Amino acid sequence: MNHARAERAALSDLFARLGPDAPTLCEGWTTFDLAAHLVLRESRPDALGGILLAPLAGYTASVQESMKARHGYDGLVELVRSGPGGIYRLIPGLDQVVNTTEYFIHHEDVRRAQRVWEPRELPADLEQTFWKQVRAGNRVFLRKSPARVVMHRIGGGVAIGGPGDAPQVEVTGRAGELLLFCFGRQAHARVDVSGDEQAVARLMDAPLGV
Prior knowledge:
Blueprint: H1 3-18, H2 31-43, H3 49-52, H4 57-82, H5 87-90, H6 94-111, H7 124-141, E1 148-153, E2 158-161, E3 168-173, H8 175-182, E4 192-195, H9 197-205
Helix pairs in contact: 1-4, 1-6, 2-4, 7-8
Organism: Streptosporangium fragile
Domain Mycothiol-dependent maleylpyruvate isomerase metal-binding: 5-42
Pfam families: MDMPI_N (PF11716)
């Protein structure tokens, strides 16, 4: 089982255990909403635009609500579990390339929204994959950062992003935690952050991610 499928299976188990009304780190979304989002992105390409483009968000939201009404929570969880669907099933390797990150982040969105949680010990190859993503994408992830961000990976490696003329902030953690930080989960990533207090405060509230 590859990492994308492992994260999908673990998240599906967590969905089933928590039920439809549990909180997530996705603002305004319960587990029911998140399950619908995951099914939508694999089965309704016509509704994908609203995930990134605000003018199309209304249509995407309406499709997501219709999927909730049609399948119910248990049905959506089983669709998540039985995936990947759509293009991710048709193109060899695409599931692993794209969905490893997608499902890791959303798995943590559910885990870390609960009252008690601890970071997981990730396999070394998965940590290496996430570090490659941080290094390759940090300029995009940090394009809205108000600070120059120097990311230090525990175990070795540095990635730099954000405006060069802004105050510098140092962020240190494991690769998976740095990835979560870069995807806008700053407050829930287990990292050490240091630098000018005002710059740190602005960075922690910044809309990071794609």
